[in-house]
User: Fold this.
Amino acid sequence: MAAEPPVDQECVEGYLFTRTPPSVLLLRRPPRRGRIWVPVSGKVEPGDVSFAVALRRELEEETAITDLRAVIPLDWQVRFEGPDGRRWRLQAFAVELDAPVPPRLSPEHDSFEWLPIPTARDRLYYSDNREALDQVAQLLGSEPGATDPETAGGGRTPRAVIVPRMGPELYDAVRAGHHRKLALQVPAGLVRNAHDLAAELREAVGVPVVVASRACFGACDFPSASETPGVDGLVVLGHAPIPNVPLERTTYFVEMRERGGDPEALAAQTEAAGVPRRLGLVASVQHLDLVAPFVAALERRGFTVRLGTGDRRLQYAAQALGCNYTSAEAVEADVDGFLFLGTGRFHPLGLAFAVTKPVWSLDPLRGEVEPPIDRAALVRKRQLLVAQCRNARRWGILVSTFAGQNRTGTALALQSRARARGYEAELLVADRVDARDLLGRDVDAYVNTACPRIALDDSDLYARPVLTVPEFRMALGEIPLEPYPFDTYH
Ligand code: SF4
Assistant:
């Protein structure tokens, strides 16, 4: 299997946008360059220490705009042959401004316009620019201001409040929020205790508390305003906030921190299990408080431990989410293996897809080290599935409307790429992706743009194959089977 060809030149492009009014800035090339409309773009220079730094430099050079509200990497890259015949790769960003300020143009452009998204989409010359712009449209669609003021605490700005566990700290914070009605969401493991916890909360804060009964999908899945009418505050147990997921209402994240386990004994077990001494450590949010003493114990035994900082979807260094292991990827080059600190197989399995170094796991409550996961077998199984899907002509593209799983822009881009190759591809939209809703459809295979773990962990529930986004691109022949990429949700 061929490896993905190397890149000779990295490039960045930026879509400057405002929420009020919803608009995007386009620049026009001068006549010698075709008078086409484009976003800000440019090459990554040797002195740029990251794509974001390169983008800020290009923005300053091409527009003199430096006052940026947010720089948001889009889930979109494109490879193409540059004018010099070399292999170029372009990484797109959305750049939010507070207001549509006029740029100071460089000689690279002769005009500019702030445009509504549909007009900008028509104006853009390149199809890959239009696909990236669809993701900006998706960001605008998830604007926090779209929240129903009736259920959003009388128009107050929703906040994320983090507390380590149930108790006085939580109750004080909730009382200070002056809510009318709360909803409590608990993870599957605490369902038996949900009613007692709701009663405890109700008594402590003195307002009505309803229990969200729908099963919690994961850290990005909160009850929506329409599921819990009249509720102006959420109490979510067992999860940390996901910084890039907008909140509809003030949400109290009770992380259920668990110190659990003796660091010295756990370090001794890690050493006895033959875990590599150049080690990357990743943990679930419940066990993050154990990380520092455990690392110190490992280092006393001669380990060198690296903790990585992930992207904007992760609240903490060394944290893992089932859809995002960028904290591990950040240190992969410096380690010989990873250790996941936490319970269950969900996170270690995802980590094994995301990194190529071997993955051990340590359950700090049971004090047991599990042997490394056979990544090659996991990947082989997925590649076989991709190979089976190469004959699929009719595709269903699964889209979730949950705020933390909504990749409509990606789905639209995949649809246009599939159609350009002569395939049928239809978007199937739901809040929660459910195999039962797909029964009886005349579709050969699905690509899932919602939680990436649906394709990897739940595919046996579906009557037709379900691929991740990169697997779909493999099936279309756009990228090779190796190296196998995890469908990271950024
Ligand atoms: S997308 Fe999936 S893995 Fe990621 S936070 Fe949501 S439920 Fe968890």
